[in-house]
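QA checklist item 7 of 12: single-chain prediction sanity check.
[x] sequence parsed
[x] length recorded as 297
[x] structure emitted
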Amino acid sequence: MKRNKLKRYILIYLASAVFLTVFIGPFLWLVSSSFQMENQLFKVPPVWFPNPVSTESYREIFMGAIYDESYVSVYGKSSSYQARIYLRSFLNSLIIALSVSFFSVLFGAYAAYPIARMDFKGKYFLLFSILVVRLVPALALAIPIVLFAKKMGMNDRLITLIFINMSFVLPYVIWLLQAYFKTIPSELEDAGRIDGCSRFQVLNKIILPLSLPGLVTTGILAFLLSWGEFLFALLITETEKSFTSTVVAAMFATMVGDINYVTIIAAGVLAVIPPVLFALFFQKYIMSGLLSGAVKN
């Protein structure tokens, strides 16, 4: 028995090591590469630990965005245009993703509750139609959406990207929340109705507070879906005031002259930070939301 248990533990630890290597290894290499010199990046065999540690790529992004002359005085050259506008594009992406996450959960909750609790004609057809709308490829809708935005004078605006992203994220939110609302016992709603609460009050005072883990989990999913959006950000934005981080990251690879790959990697590391922080900060709610409904009374 002890030998079998030891083998089981060894297999578990080996599987965990493989999992960490496959999924976390590339990210650790990305972070390590962002602190290397350009010549170290192309060495064979690869350099896993930077020696010496270089922060030039991060200085180019931060010093170039804040005060480019200080970067010139230190390195004797001007920072690239992409590096100077990256922080602003990072803030634009953050504004878009947070707005989409908040409003998608807000509107999605009020749309999902009637579907989850009320019986009406065409309920399942409506639910299926919501999902079908999301299954339409974004590329198929790109041209009409872009032409409509330009016709309405809404191109090159963050609010346009917020609305576009919401139109694609909202169906997911409605589907997830209506499934989560079904896991909440209906007896709690009945008790609220007996006490004189309306449907609207039951949702605000009983259902939404109890659904906090599901709301947070859905909000983070909406954030991740909108944070990495590239197609419409590329088609809608025209000036640096509305560029997103994904667009500027792509511009690094199209700059005139030598491509600074270390700076591109540093921009990628910065882009990963918000989702990671969200996952770490709301870890308790994410686990609770994912495991809800796993055990039925």
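[x] summary fact logged: The chain is about 75% helix and 0% strand.
[ ] second reviewer sign-off
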